């Protein structure tokens, strides 16, 4: 399930393990992973990581052991499995609390959605304020006369409240992310 969820999101899944090739291939086959690198030492894993980066890929590395710690620390995103060693958890930028690999897809989706929300909120707030701050400062007085001047401060306050509420509600929509099915 986890591998299919990542593939649906356009992510290439590569297995890099220190286990023997036969065991690695059996697990990879069951999980639906097509690219397997078995019998790797920690330095071999680092070399693979460097090669993938040299090919222009961003690398998220998922691991749980001492042998994974260098690659977890060096990857663009290190994801440690919560049931793993303390060294791996310290090296990872993200720690999955449960040993459920579907959490990898959820973590990546959450990160992407969060960045999208931050960009959207900044665009909304900057655009809204670029239009309404000059109005609140009196830009419409020459057009409508001094009669409008008395309502500008309350209009500005209401506009700011609406802007802030919109940003908060947009951010709260992240709560509806769920594990991929």
TrEMBL record:
GO cellular component term of the entry, any: membrane
Class of this enzyme: hydrolase
UniProt name for this protein: ATPase, P-type, K/Mg/Cd/Cu/Zn/Na/Ca/Na/H-transporter
Species per Swiss-Prot/TrEMBL record: mine drainage metagenome
Membrane spanning residue stretches: 122-148, 154-177
EC code(s) of this entry: 3.6.3.-
GO MF annotation, one: P-type divalent copper transporter activity
Record key words, sorted: Hydrolase, Membrane, Translocase, Transmembrane, Transmembrane helix
One GO term (biological process): copper ion homeostasis
Keyword check for Electron transport: no
InterPro entries: HAD-like_sf (IPR036412), HAD_sf (IPR023214), P_typ_ATPase (IPR001757)
Pfam families associated with the record: Hydrolase
